[in-house]
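INFO batch 0412 | record 1 of 1 | parsing
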Amino acid sequence: MKKSLLFWVLTVFATVTMAQTNLKPGYVITNSGDTIRGNIDFRTNDKLSKQCDFWANGGNVKTTYKPGDIEGFRFGHNGKYFVTRRLNVTGEPELYFAEFMVHGKMNLYCIVHNSDEYYFFEREDGEMAELTKRSSAYSSVGSFAIQEAKDHLQEKREQFGKVKSLLQKSWKAVEGVDDNNMSRKKLVNVVRDYHNDVCTDAGKCMVYEYNETSDKFKMHFKVLAGFASYLTEESINQNYSDENYPCGVFEIGIGGEVELERIMKGLSAELAIIYSPKYKSEQEFVATEMPPLGDVSSTIEKSILAFSLGVLKRWGTGNIQPLIRGGLYVGMDLGAKETDMVRPPYASSYYPHDYDLGSYSNHFGFYFGAGVQMPIGKQFVRLHGDLYKSVDITDMVKLGVTAEFGF
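INFO prediction complete | emitting tokens
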């Protein structure tokens, strides 16, 4: 029953989140040359090469265009530009929405397919050459992976030869083709060099040029402050290994965040560094098994430096946006020490025992939380509560409330 309920919850969550859109202003160009303005779902380059989800201005009905249905589409504010082209990516020529990287005497297109990037150089006379930037992962294993790597190397040699032949009117462009750098920016610069050498008229030969900022992820920096309660906590090498030292601490920190809106609306990857300057827990108990035996007043003091890496998902665009977050957590004890005041059986006085527990990375686990975000212009304020749980011998459980300011 519990497994069925969990599966149902995860299914609903995945359906709701994937159904969300990431709308950006833009326009489509019909096959008759007309321009229709509206909003386009801004997704990954892989998805955009296969379809365009469009909402015309003044309407709330989505129209999904496939390559060939329209001449192309473009995002506003000098954004990404895609046109219908029949190109050979998988072995047979097919229609794609190819991203226009450069439009001029030498066109440059890009198609992303299964994480591989396919670049097509098209000279004004229609002659074309291709460069393929393969992902680092191979689809095969063992000896098949070795053969696949050899095939890719041979493919690269042949492709670079054809591209350099196509660019032969510009020696600078030929020299710029480098298999160690096949970034979008580099290849656009190569085609720009070609135009600078072959363009003889006074006009501008390059009609359109890719704007690299259109592909950049939006980043935020943030400062954090909060309070956390360690419900269960054991320090490595503590003298009374079976004792628990709960404690409340104040926390401060800094972090960074990268928006992943093109993968999922409201999704971000986050990294934070959190510092607890003063952890002090005092416990009283009777030691009957672990020496020194007797009545014990034990104190553990330390600072804690922690790192968290995870993802955050928020919903809505209003003044209050609910969110959930989760990921991995690593904590490090700094300057940990234990002071035990022990009164042995039948004694009337307490005797001090001091222990240097050292600095150890003694928390490794996960965290999960929920909260709200309030946008303030380009900045934001967040408040969230989180549960932290270690998966090592310290058996740490921590509840925290954190406020963030991002900019």
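INFO post-check: Residues 158 and 304 are 56 Å apart (CA to CA).
INFO record closed
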